[in-house]
Design a protein that fits this description.
By secondary structure, the chain is mostly beta strands. The chain has a single domain, classed as Roll (Ubiquitin-like (UB roll)). Helix content is 9%, strand content 27%. The chain is built from 1 helix and 5 strands. It has a 5-stranded mixed beta sheet, with no helix packed on it. The radius of gyration is 12 Å and the shape is globular.
Length: 81
C-alpha cells in the first residue's frame, strides 16, 4: 500500500512534503520549526499543535492523511502553558 504524500505549511512559513506515518518532531526539526515538548507520553498537552484546525498531540500521533493533502500547522494556544 502506498503512503500518501502531504504538504505541510509550518508556522515559520516553510512548506515541506512528507508521507503519512512519519514523525511530527522529525519533520518539524527538518523544517527548522520547534514543537514544544513536555511529558512526551500524551498526558500534559505541551506539544499540542493544530492541524487544519484540529488539535493533535504529536508525541502520540504520527502524521496522517485527513481528507486533505495540505496540512496547515499552528501552535495551540493553551492558557495553562
Amino acid at each position: 500500500m502506498n503512503k500518501k504524500k502531504l504538504k505541510i505549511s509550518w508556522p515559520n512559513k516553510l512548506i515541506t512534503t512528507v508521507e503519512e506515518g512519519e514523525d511530527w518532531f522529525v519533520k518539524a526539526k527538518m523544517a527548522d520549526f520547534e514543537i514544544p515538548t513536555g511529558c512526551l507520553i500524551g498526558k500534559c498537552g505541551a506539544c499540542e499543535i493544530d492541524v487544519n484546525g484540529e488539535t493533535v498531540r504529536p508525541c502520540i500521533k504520527s502524521i496522517e492523511y485527513r481528507n486533505n493533502t495540505n496540512l496547515n500547522i499552528e501552535l495551540t494556544n493553551d492558557p495553562f502553558w
